[in-house]
Write a structure and sequence with these properties.
Blueprint (H helix, E strand, L loop, with lengths): L2 E5 L4 H11 L4 E8 L11 H13 L3 E5 L1 H9 L12 H18 L4 E3 L13 H11 L5 E2 L11 H4 L17 H9 L17 H11 L6 H7 L3 E6 L2 E5 L3 H10 L5 E5 L7 E5 L3 H13 L8 E6 L6 E7 L4 H7 E2 L14
Parallel strand pairs: 1-2, 1-4, 2-3, 4-5
Antiparallel strand pairs: 6-7, 6-12, 7-9, 8-9, 8-10, 10-11
Helix pairs in contact: 4-5
Bound molecules: iron/sulfur cluster (SF4).
Length: 347
Amino acid sequence: MVKAIVLLSGGLDSTLAIKLMLDQGIEIEALNFSTIFCQCTSKKSGCRSESRKVAERFGIPLKVIDNNKAFFKVIKSPPHGYGRNMNPCIDCRILMLKTAGDYMKESGASFLVTGEVLGQRPMSQHRQALKLIEKETGLTGLILRPLSAQALEPTIPEKKGWVDREKLPAITGRSRKEQMNLAKMFEIKDYPCPAGGCLLTDPGFSRRLRDFLTDGELTVNEGLLLKQGRHFRIGPKARAVVGRNETENKMLLSLVREGDLIVEVKVVPGPITILRGDYSETEIKLAGSITARYADLKGDQGEVEVKEKDNQTVRQTFSVTPLTQSGIKQYLVGAASSEACCGDQGK
Ligand code: SF4
């Protein structure tokens, strides 16, 4: 039996790609690339849990690859540039497909399968981009995109007769109507992650990331911090992150690391603020004023407590006037919105 490796995001397109291949008697193993910028609808573990569901549904093995480290390098300096926001889609695809290509060889598979649809994504799924990605990964002819197969040049598995091209669709463009129809036909009803979701396509998050990269190196901790709260650039090398609710406050505390300060208003309920970077007393006071702005203060002034990392040692307390709205605007760095849209790791 001929074996293929499918890039599975957990979304509808990669689910359909698997079904189309299984129907042709191809042995399938799925790969899921997990990154902290995935914004799946699944609250628990994002795309990973969605892809697990799909793998279980079809009874196929699934390997999850943590690609964060390599991805961070790509995000910092993508050779093919960014899309509309901080999404380096072409280099992201090259990275995933190269890794998948290595795994294909290791596991004795003969080709790769993705759920990509010709023309669906402006940066990475037009004809020239698909060709460029194949060339740079050294996988020309070995990437089958079943949903668009008949709209693309025949691949090696089609030429060799492992896959019957005539039985595959020719879907193109951004409309998802044909995928929905296929899903209906295959009785695939619950696809909670229809198009995935990549924070790098989000304008607010991208502004935040761009600002961060001016003086920071991406790590998992920094990436997770970027996803939380309100971000303020309060000094050339100092940032304050303010929790917006109880859940974010808890998350922020879990991300505190050596050198960070925890700033919170004493007595009245208020947010947790993490102060990170190279900060002076002026910046500590400014972080206090920002924190007080979001606290439940009745009067004009608030007493602020600044703690060291261990969350026990109070380093100092001082009184501040909450920052004005115009002050907040001056330091606030683009808020993340919920408009993230692509996440086409397997599509
Ligand atoms: S939108 Fe998709 S291809 Fe682009 S960077 Fe994000 S996961 Fe990668």
